[in-house]
Amino acid sequence: VEAVHLIADGKAPRIPQPKEGATYEGIQKKENAEISWNQPAAALHNWIRGHDKVPGAWATIDGQVVTFYGSSLLDASVPAGQELSIKGASRPGLVTKNGLVIFGNDGKMVLVRNLQFEDGKMIPASKYFSVDENTTLELTEEEKKMAEDIR
């Protein structure tokens, strides 16, 4: 009660917090979140998950910055997939039906589920090589009639 009264009266002591021993890390910046490939799979996973969603761990693929989201450690045999060259990685990644498999320097694997490009477009990692495909929406006769009624 006494402390509350001191605060209310504006007489409470103000002691600045010392800087030594402080644990505040500050705001992470995108340029500091680049993935360092010379580490084990567990460290890669922790780096990606630690930067998920902001600022996002990234690497350079085909000359553009690609941000990795949603990683998990993969404890299985190497899955079938299409190779993807990643700048700085000692071994190419694999685009599989479940996502992008990347390798640590210990040979173990990490599965990344989503990728985001510099333009902000996010895709499932498993669709990396089908990004450029255009799909058109085909309406049935009933749907066309409904669309016309709505117009």
Automatic annotation (TrEMBL):
Q: Which residues form the Formyl transferase C-terminal domain?
A: 29-129
Q: What InterPro entries is this protein classified in? A: Formyl_trans_C (IPR005793), Formyl_trans_C_sf (IPR037022), Formyl_transferase-like_C_sf (IPR011034)
Q: Which GO terms describe its molecular function?
A: catalytic activity
The protein's gene is named Aldh1l2
Give start-end ranges for the coiled-coil region(s). Answer: none
Q: Would you tell me the protein name for this molecule?
A: AL1L2 dehydrogenase
Top-level taxon of the source organism:
Eukaryota
Q: Read off the CDD domains from this record.
A: FDH_Hydrolase_C
